[in-house]
């Protein structure tokens, strides 16, 4: 069936689904395949549960007029997303980077949605499936779409850029994330810069942190750039006033008291302010949006439980984000500080070196207590407590309760360091 006809079927549906556990009435079901499943086998089930159509790529499962046979379901999902993106003519803002993508995306959405009809990537659905699903949520009435792009290998951001076809772009930073897949820090810079490459090739606008020397160098000769800075006068000026404990900043004589911690979140706020200003969002609406934004999903959350204050930043971790979190944590004043760090994954052959570097930095901070968890941290030389796995930590904490104070909890997703909350 031609893409235009599939698009007509799509328009007649209320939503898209790739999971029979989440079928809603009158949805369009895409029978995707994975290493351990074949979505084609669930097509009939999806229709029985209320899907209006099911797209399959194995002729055996073309059982009725409601099953649409294509050569490749995933490729059809991606092509349909491009077709629909152009049908809607929505302005697209794409962002990528090593750290802070999801929080920055949420902040941009909070600011722009005060003035425009916007949609943004749900959670971190930022890959070759998530980006098409986000594009298919656009409607002709959507004025701005905010598309997060994630990657851990060369070429992925280029591919996603060709899907989303952004009109604007922003890279949060270039850090030590997914080093294994990218092949080191230079590989990270090259991979993430694929968004810059797309935007420059298509003469589109780029937002940048002008206090980041890598971004400045990458865009030195490009005209269509809109930057923010604390100290360079030829860029939009935003000042960091305080981070003890929450970020307080100022732009155009407007003071913003956020619910976010850490200087790294100051930069995320700057991006949202700059993009909001570009789109003529009134500054008082920008202020309100940033002040009302509250972090969630284990990302820089500030919690209180049984007399403990907790900075829960356990959604993920890499050397850059962990160093930044420790730096901001150490700068907090007037409190007893206790750090729990879990292993950093996808660091590749530099894992030993990177974990030792974090341990050395942690030792230099002189925190009251520090606990390191995981096979990599267990190998480092440190004055902190070390545990090979979470079960060892659990056994220790059952006998040695965590001292009262302010806790930083940080680790890669696979470490699930938020389980520490059960011991408070």
Please characterize this protein's 3D structure:
The chain has 424 residues and is α/β, with parallel strands linked by helices. Helix 14 (351-365) links the parallel strand 19 (337-342) and strand 20. It has helices spanning 3-12, 43-48, 73-88, 101-112, 130-135, 156-164, 179-182, 185-192, 194-201, 213-218, 263-278, 283-292, 319-331, 351-365, 375-378, 390-399, and strands at 15-17, 27-30, 33-34, 37-38, 53-56, 67-69, 91-96, 118-120, 144-148, 168-171, 205-209, 225-229, 236-237, 239-242, 246-251, 254-261, 301-305, 308-313, 337-342, 369-373, 385-387, 406-410. ATP binds at residues 97-103.
Offer a quick outline of the entry.
With 424 residues, the protein is α/β, with parallel strands linked by helices. It has helices at residues 3-12, 43-48, 73-88, 101-112, 130-135, 156-164, 179-182, 185-192, 194-201, 213-218, 263-278, 283-292, 319-331, 351-365, 375-378, 390-399, and strands at residues 15-17, 27-30, 33-34, 37-38, 53-56, 67-69, 91-96, 118-120, 144-148, 168-171, 205-209, 225-229, 236-237, 239-242, 246-251, 254-261, 301-305, 308-313, 337-342, 369-373, 385-387, 406-410.
Q: Report the oligomer.
A: single chain
Average per-residue pLDDT, rounded, comes to: 94
Q: Residue ranges: pLDDT <50 for 5 or more in a row? A: none
Number of DSSP helical runs: 16
Q: What is the count of structural domains?
A: 3
CATH topology of the largest domain, anyone? UDP-N-acetylmuramoyl-L-alanine:D-glutamate ligase
CATH C-level class of the largest domain is Alpha Beta
Measured by DSSP, the beta-strand proportion falls in 15-25%
Percent of residues in helical segments?
25-40%
How far is it from the N-terminal to the C-terminal residue, by CA?
Answer: 58 Å
Largest sheet strand order: 8-9-7-10-11-12-13
Question: How many DSSP E strands?
Answer: 22
What profile does the largest beta sheet have? Answer: 7 strands, parallel
GO molecular function: ATP binding; UDP-N-acetylmuramoyl-tripeptide-D-alanyl-D-alanine ligase activity; UDP-N-acetylmuramoylalanyl-D-glutamyl-2,6-diaminopimelate-D-alanyl-D-alanine ligase activity
Domain Mur ligase central: 96-275
Domain Mur ligase C-terminal: 299-377
Organism: Croceivirga radicis
């Amino acid at each position: 069936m031609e893409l235009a006809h599939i698009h007509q079927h799509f328009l007649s549906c209320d939503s898209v689904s790739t999971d029979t556990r989440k079928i809603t009435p009158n949805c369009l079901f895409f029978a995707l395949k994975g290493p351990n499943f074949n979505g084609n086998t669930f097509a009939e089930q999806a229709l029985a549960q209320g899907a209006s159509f099911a797209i399959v790529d194995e002729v055996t499962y073309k059982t009725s007029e409601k099953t649409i046979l294509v050569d490749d379901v995933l490729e059809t999902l991606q092509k349909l997303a491009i077709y629909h993106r152009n049908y809607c003519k929505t302005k697209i803002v794409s962002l990528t980077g090593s750290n802070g993508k999801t929080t920055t995306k949420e902040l941009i959405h909070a600011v722009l949605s005060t003035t425009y009809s916007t949609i943004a990537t749900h959670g971190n659905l930022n890959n070759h499936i998530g980006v098409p699903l986000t594009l298919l949520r656009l409607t002709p009435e959507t004025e701005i779409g905010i598309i997060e792009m994630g990657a851990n290998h060369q070429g992925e951001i280029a591919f996603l850029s060709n899907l989303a076809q952004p009109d604007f772009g922003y890279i949060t930073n270039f850090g030590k994330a997914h080093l294994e897949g990218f092949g080191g820090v230079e590989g990270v810079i090259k991979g993430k810069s694929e968004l810059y490459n797309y935007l420059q090739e298509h003469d589109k606008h780029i937002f940048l942190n002008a206090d980041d020397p890598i971004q400045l160098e990458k865009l030195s000769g490009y005209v269509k750039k809109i930057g923010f800075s604390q100290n360079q006068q030829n860029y939009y000026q935003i000042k960091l006033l305080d981070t003890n404990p929450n970020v307080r900043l100022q732009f155009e004589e407007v003071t913003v008291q956020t619910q976010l911690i850490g200087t790294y979140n100051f930069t995320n706020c700057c991006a949202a302010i700059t993009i909001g200003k570009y789109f003529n969002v009134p500054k008082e609406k920008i202020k309100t949006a940033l002040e009302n934004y509250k972090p969630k999903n284990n990302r820089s959350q500030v919690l209180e439980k049984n007399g403990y204050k907790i900075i829960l930043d356990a959604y993920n971790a890499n050397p850059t984000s962990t160093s930044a979190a420790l730096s901001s944590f150490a700068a907090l004043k007037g409190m007893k500080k206790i750090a729990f760090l879990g292993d950093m994954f996808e660091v590749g052959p530099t894992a030993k070196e990177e974990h030792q570097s974090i341990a050395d930095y942690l030792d230099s901070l002189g925190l009251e207590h520090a606990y390191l968890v995981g096979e990599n941290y267990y190998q480092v030389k440190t004055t902190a407590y070390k545990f090979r796995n979470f079960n060892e930590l659990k056994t220790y904490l059952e006998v040695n309760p965590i001292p009262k104070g302010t806790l930083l909890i940080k680790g890669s997703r696979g470490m699930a360091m938020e389980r520490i909350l059960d011991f408070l």
